Each structure stands twice: as C-alpha cells, then as structure tokens.
From TrEMBL:
Domain AB hydrolase-1: from-to ranges: 30-255
Keywords of this entry: Hydrolase
Protein name: Alpha/beta hydrolase
Pfam families from the UniProt entry: Abhydrolase_6
Length: 265
C-alpha cells in the first residue's frame, strides 16, 4: 500500500499532529500509533505491508517533526485527546494499532469511545523506566541527546554497550535517534505520573495483544506486557516469532502480515 496524503490536524495547547495516510483516505481502516523513539516515518514499511484494511493512517504524535510541540502541561491524557481528534477526522476507523507507549494510548482511548478492534504490540505501563527518569531529566535539561539515546537503549531497554556503539557508527541513524529522544523525558514522565485504570479497552469489541517471542516473560518489555494483560480480561495474546521490541524496524513485513491475519479474526 502506498502513502497517498499527509494531513495536519489541530489539537489542544496550540499544537498539531500530522498523519500519513496510505491507501484510500475515506475508506474504513486502521490507525497506527507509534511509541517513544519513533515517528510516522519509522512505520512506513509496516504500513506498506498492510492490505487487510483499505486505508492505514499513521499518527505522527506531537513532539516530533513535522507535528507540533508537546506543550505544557503534557500528560497521557494529552495523547488520548490527540488520538480522539484523529479518530474524529477518520470517523470510519475500524481498528487501532499501537506500539509500546502508543499501545497504552490506544488501550486508554478505547475506554473513552467504542472501537471495533484494538491491537497493541508490547504495550508498556506504569512503572516502566521510572529508575531512569532522574538521569533523563539531567540529559534533557542540558540538551545532551547523545546521553538520552544511551539511557533509553542501555538503562531502559537493556541493550548491550556493543549494540549502542553499532547504532552510533551510523551517523545518519544516530542523528535520527538524537532527534527522536528530545520528547523522551516528558513522555516517560507522563507514563509514570498517572496510575492506570483497573480496566483498559472497555469499549473495544476485540483486543489483541502481541509480544515478540524473544521478550516473552523477560524484563522490561515482557514483564510490562504481562502487567498490561492483567487489566484486559478479554484480550487475545499472539506471539511474533523471532522478534523483540523493535519488530517494526527489524521485521516490518512479518509484522504487517501478522496484523493482516489479526484483521481476519
């Protein structure tokens, strides 16, 4: 599926979000919500692999260009309200898909409004990465984006020093990661600031949770996934073989095929 248009939508707090639309803009479709250290461009290969819905709308959440700033105050509620604006614009949406922090946003949004299907890949919830907040705060206040990238990969995601050095060895990719790390402290702070509701996705007719097989039962993503699952009694659980948290980068075609399969359930 090819991208057809990009739209700019005004949201609260003198900010805006852009959305990349693939396929038929006016047809019922899937809305994709990326998480932290990610943007709509990062999800282009997954969107291109999806054909179970006639349209795919990928949200570029506030805090990453060409969308507007996070603004103050900023909270999880801000993200839920922004997604509500997107759903009002694309009112024939049939399904929501969120990754990581975006997965939590979609699950909370389905408490506010009815949606046929919600799919979440390794959604995270409080407490997640709380231990890294003081160091992230210092790095953000000094605009030390190199340090922010190191913290999220080493102290939160648990990747090795060699993995981070491999990332740093590609100047273009590292520059993108630096840019995407700028809203990280605020986003992780918002994630940990508000206790989650006892139940999530209460107005979703169907909920499907996906975990990469490599993360099953392991911290931090597998354990947070299990925590989220306890709040959604009616969720189906699915594994993506051979993958961890970054399937959208490392196996976009496989992730796209799994989403196509889930649309048929």
């Amino acid at each position: 599926m090819e991208r057809t248009i990009q739209k700019k939508l005004s949201v609260g707090g003198d900010s805006w979000v852009t959305v990349d639309v693939y396929g038929e803009p006016d047809a019922p479709g899937l809305v994709v919500v990326p998480g932290v250290m990610s943007d709509a461009h990062t999800w282009r290969h997954v969107a291109g692999a999806i054909d179970a819905w006639p349209s795919v709308v990928v949200v570029n959440r506030r805090g990453r260009a060409p969308s507007g700033p996070l603004t103050d105050p900023y909270s999880l509620r801000t993200e839920v309200e922004d997604l509500g604006v997107v759903l009002d614009e694309f009112d024939s949406t049939r399904a929501l898909f969120g990754w990581s922090y975006g997965g939590l946003i979609t699950l909370l949004t389905a408490n506010d409004r009815p949606i046929h299907q919600v799919i979440a890949y390794e959604p995270v919830m409080q407490p997640f990465g709380r231990h890294a907040l003081p160091d992230l705060k210092t790095a953000a206040e000094t605009a030390d984006w190199d340090r922010c990238v190191e913290i999220v990969n080493r102290r939160i995601s648990g990747f090795s020093a060699a993995y981070v050095e491999n990332l740093r060895a590609d100047p273009d990719s590292w520059a993108i990661l630096r840019r995407l790390s700028e809203p990280l402290y605020a986003e992780l702070g918002a994630l940990n600031a508000t206790p989650p509701p006892d139940l999530m996705a209460q107005q979703a007719a169907q909920v499907d949770l996906i975990i990469g097989r490599r993360n099953r039962g392991t911290a931090p993503y597998g354990t947070s996934f299990d925590h989220v699952r306890q709040h959604i009694a009616h969720a189906g659980v699915h594994e993506l073989p051979g993958q961890g948290h970054l399937a959208h980068l490392q196996a976009p075609a496989e992730l796209g095929r799994l989403l196509n399969d889930l649309a048929a359930i």
